[in-house]
Design goal:
Layout lengths: L1 H28 L3 H23 L2 H32 L5 H6 L7 E8 L5 E7 L2 E7 L2 H18 L5 E6 L11 H6 L7 H20 L22
Helix pairs in contact: 1-3, 2-3
Organism: Streptomyces cupreus
Protein name: DUF4191 domain-containing protein
Pfam families: DUF4191
Length: 233
C-alpha cells in the first residue's frame, strides 16, 4: 500500500511538469491561451453559481460548476494544444509519420516506404480499412511515388483495398490536423485476422528486400561475372 502511494506521489510531479511544458509550448503559438482558459473557467463557474442562487442552492451548484469548469478548461486546453502542435509540425519532414503513429489501436505504421531524391516520402499504415498510403512533399512529385507504391501493393495484396492520401492544404489534399480523422472515417472492410495476415505479407516482403545481397560498390568498367554464377564454378 505504501509503495502504491509513493508511486502516485512520484507520478503527480511528472504529470504537472508535463502539463506545464505543454502549456509553454502551446503559448508560443497561441498567445491568448491563458486568457481563453481563464475565460472558459470563469464563464462555466459563473453560470452555475447564477443558477444556484436562482434556485436557492448556490453551494451545490457552485461545487458542480467548479468541477465542470475544470473539465471544460481541460478540454479547451487539449484542443488548442493539439492545434498548436499541428501548426508547428505543418511542413516539417516526417510530420505525417508522427500523426500516423498516434492514429489509434489497430493500426500498424511503416514510415518512409518510398522516397525520392527531393525528400518527398510515402508512409504506409495498415488497419481494418485496408492499406493507407500517406504522402508528404511536393504534390506533383509525390503522385508518381504514390502510383508506384500503390501498384506494388495491388500486386502483393490484391485482395486488400489501398487508399492514398496527400498531406497538404491544396485542393484534393488532407490537412495534417485532419489526417487522423480522415483515416478513422474510412470504411472498415477487414477483420482482425486479415489485418494480421496483411501485415505479415508486407513484413515478409520487407525482410526479403533487406536480406537481398547487394554489391557494396560500383562494378569496374569491362568487368563481367564469371560463368556459372558469382562463385565462379
Amino acid at each position: 500500500m505504501a509503495r502504491s502511494d509513493s508511486a502516485a506521489d512520484a507520478a503527480n510531479p511528472g504529470r504537472l511538469k508535463q502539463i506545464a511544458l505543454t502549456y509553454k509550448m502551446t503559448r508560443r503559438a497561441d498567445k491568448k491561451i491563458g486568457l481563453v482558459l481563464a475565460g472558459v473557467f470563469l464563464l462555466i463557474l459563473g453560470v452555475f453559481l447564477a443558477i444556484g442562487f436562482l434556485i436557492g442552492h448556490p453551494i451545490y451548484l457552485g461545487i458542480l460548476g467548479l468541477l465542470l469548469a475544470f473539465l471544460g478548461t481541460a478540454i479547451v486546453f487539449g484542443r488548442r494544444a493539439e492545434r498548436a502542435a499541428f501548426g508547428q509540425m505543418e511542413g516539417q519532414p516526417g510530420a505525417a509519420a508522427a500523426v500516423l503513429d498516434n492514429v489509434g489501436r489497430g493500426w500498424t505504421t511503416t514510415p518512409a516506404v518510398a522516397m525520392n531524391r527531393s525528400q518527398d516520402v510515402v508512409h504506409r499504415a495498415v488497419g481494418k480499412a485496408g492499406i493507407v498510403l500517406v504522402a508528404e512533399g511536393n504534390p506533383n512529385r509525390v503522385k508518381s511515388l504514390l502510383a508506384a507504391e500503390k501498384k506494388k501493393m495491388n500486386r502483393i495484396v490484391a485482395d486488400v483495398p489501398v487508399h492514398d492520401l496527400i498531406v497538404g492544404v491544396g485542393e484534393g489534399q488532407v490537412e495534417l490536423k485532419k489526417l487522423r480523422t480522415t483515416m478513422l472515417k474510412l470504411p472498415r472492410v477487414l477483420s482482425g485476422p486479415q489485418v494480421t495476415a496483411t501485415n505479415d505479407r508486407l513484413r515478409a516482403l520487407g525482410d526479403l528486400m533487406s536480406n537481398m545481397p547487394l554489391p557494396k560498390g560500383p562494378m569496374p568498367k569491362g568487368m563481367k561475372l564469371p560463368k556459372g554464377g558469382p562463385n565462379g564454378r
